[in-house]
Amino acid sequence: MATFPRRTFLQGVGVSMALPWLESLPVFGADPGSVHANGNAPLRFGVLFSGNGFHKDHWWAEGSGAEMKLGKVLEPLDPFKEKMVFIRGLYNEEALKGNIHSSQTGNLLSGAPLANGGEIRSGTSIDQLLAQTYGQSTKVPSLVLGCEKSNPSVHKNYSMIYSSHISWSSPTTPTPLEVYPSLAFDRLFKDNVNIGDQSVLDAVLEDAADVRRQISLADQRKLDEYLNSVREVEQRIEQAGKRGELQGWKPSLTEPNIPRPADGIPQDIGEHMKLMCDILVLAFQTDTTRVCTLKLNNDHSSLRFSNLGIDYMIHHLLSHQESDDWLTVNQFFLKQFAYIAERLDSISEGDRTCLDNTVLMYCSSMLTGSHNANQLPVVLLGSAGGQIETGRCLNYLDQPNRKMCSLYLSLLEKYGVKLPQFGDSTEKLAEV
User: Fold this and answer.
1) Domain co-membership, 304 together with 331
2) Whether 327 contacts 58, CB under 8 Å
3) What is the largest CA-CA distance in the chain?
4) Using one digit for the tens of pLDDT, what is the confidence trace for 312-355?
5) Which of 121, 258, 264, 271 is the most buried (most CB within 10 A)?
6) Residue 424 falls within a domain, yes or no?
7) Are the C-beta atoms of 29 and 37 separated by less than 8 Å?
8) 358-363 and 44-49: which strand pairing?
9) β-strands 392-395, 378-381: how paired?
10) Of 229, 258, 287, which residue is a domain's last?
11) Given CA atoms 145, 150, 156, 157 in this order, what sign does their dihedral have?
């Protein structure tokens, strides 16, 4: 059998597509001195965010393991209770100072003080710290996705840039947010975005056939499933473009590589979100990136949900209703989280699944639409390769150390990043 490098790619003209974990190829970690020199799949870190909090009566969990009981908002996660950690009572002290959406979102992943009065300053977020350290060994250090465009306006002396970005590459630089599925897809697989409408999969089929002849039957099936999933995402992006949704026209070789801005919000937010979820899964499955944030909407969001039959009110105003429709929207967001978890859990990586080798964190900038940020909603799925005991509910509400940044210190250590301080915390959460 041929010898393959640690980072095995399918190659085509202008295209490089990383292979998924295959038992018969030492794709991950074969280089001497590698963090994963034993050939195990790497760890991943993903954050999903939705703005404006959740229904006050239905965000809760209690118990442990298979017997854990979930509030109605979290019901979509029922199949993953044994791979879940529900965390109550954590907060960012700096986020309480403005008591508005912007001041509660811009530092969600950093705990940093926020500047106001025309200045923009937050702190480097946990995902970007990981991208600058752990993520440097991948083609894309981090993927920052969104389903609602950034809002550049100002609200009560705070920039709405804070409401639009949870990922910050530096204290003064919100990480650029990719809201177009086609461009996010291209970033994963195309070496030059100017190659136009060429199919990524068609470009690598010849190389894939060569690899297929050298792997086991089980890995051949896994490779086929992977290539089919790439094709499916390509086709869905193409169809959405033809309908005039999500991205508008596509640039060709003779046109600038600048997509036409879509008018208003995407016509089908459900399709938009699912595409972004699938792109996150492909990114992790291929080890193209190990760090991803997906912002399903902005805080102070203007999204409407015609796909749910709820288009009479924007998301932000709906969050103040505590109605059945608000609960339906909450569950719709958690279904995206569950969809990603289901996809990752179906990907075998030796003795574990891709979900087992990941930490997925779902969070919002407030517990409820009434701007309650003195405790934040947090759910973890996955165990970081067995490092986190799952199937638990943790309550820090009456504990002396209940800082979100204490959670981040604990999580960073799972990825080999040990810091004496992150944000406003110098103490890890011992239970995580």
Assistant:
1) yes
2) yes
3) 64
4) 888 888 888 889 999 999 999 999 999 999 999 999 888 899 99
5) 271
6) no
7) yes
8) parallel
9) unpaired
10) 258
11) positive
Going by their DSSP bridges, the two strands 154-155 and 348-349 should be labelled as unpaired
CA–CA distance, 432 with 394 (Å, rounded to integer): 9
- Reference 301, options 160, 108, 125, 123; nearest CA is 160
- Of the pLDDT bands very low, low, confident and very high (cuts 50, 70, 90), residue 302 is confident
| Spatial distance between the Cα atoms of 127 and 415, rounded to a whole number of angstroms | 11
Here the tokens at position 220 are 């051949």
Place of tokens 């508008």: 248
How far is Cα 360 from Cα 340, in angstroms, rounded to an integer? Answer: 9
Q: How far apart are CA 316 and CA 300, in angstroms?
A: 5
The answer to the question of residue 105 being in a domain is: yes
Query: Per DSSP, what are the bridge partners of residue 348?
Result: 353
- Overall number of domains in the chain: 2
Residue 275 carries which side chain, given as an amino acid letter?
L
Say if residues 180 and 259 touch (Cβ distance below 8 Å): yes
How many angstroms separate the CA atoms of 423 and 108, rounded?
10
Which of 225, 258, 291 is a domain's end point?
258
Q: Please give the residue range of the domain that contains residue 93.
A: 41-180+269-414
The confidence band for 24, taking pLDDT boundaries of 50, 70 and 90, is confident
The two structure tokens encoding residue 405: 């940044």
Q: Are 68 and 75 in contact (CB under 8 A)?
A: no
Q: Which residues of 135-152 are buried (b: 16+ CB within 10 A; e: fewer)?
A: bebbbbbbbbbbbbbbbe
Nearest to 405 by CA among 381, 384, 423: 423
